[in-house]
Design brief:
The chain has about 100 residues and is mainly alpha-helical. It has one domain: Helix Hairpins, CATH 1.10.287.3510. It is about 75% helix and about 0% strand. The termini are far apart.
């Protein structure tokens, strides 16, 4: 029977981080870029909780993960409002074709 250790959490976190970074760098759709950012934040949360558990840091990792979750919720609300404004103005949400929001 294999015991789950810190290495397993770090591997999962690194895959999530890599997928999130890939989504941010290769996608044109703003919603998919936001999903990539959420993957990056989830990878950070896994690291916080794993190091808190295996590094004997007490509850500091869980508190930081909770703070990141609240931050991600606020970021998602503001970012979706911006995406809706972009769609209303331009008719699409392709980030490489948006040059201004002034008009």
């Amino acid at each position: 029977m294999v015991e789950v250790g810190l290495t397993h959490f770090l591997v999962v976190s690194s895959f999530l981080f890599a997928f999130g970074l890939y989504a941010i760098l290769t996608r044109k759709n703003a919603i998919l870029v936001l999903m990539g950012i959420e993957l990056l934040l989830n990878a950070a949360n896994i690291n916080f909780v794993a190091f808190s558990r295996y590094g004997n840091f007490g509850l500091n990792g869980q508190l930081m993960a909770l703070f990141v979750i609240v931050l991600a919720a606020a970021e998602a609300a503001i970012a979706l409002a911006i995406v809706l404004n972009i769609y209303k103005t331009f008719g699409h949400v392709n980030v490489d074709e948006i040059d201004n929001l002034k008009e």
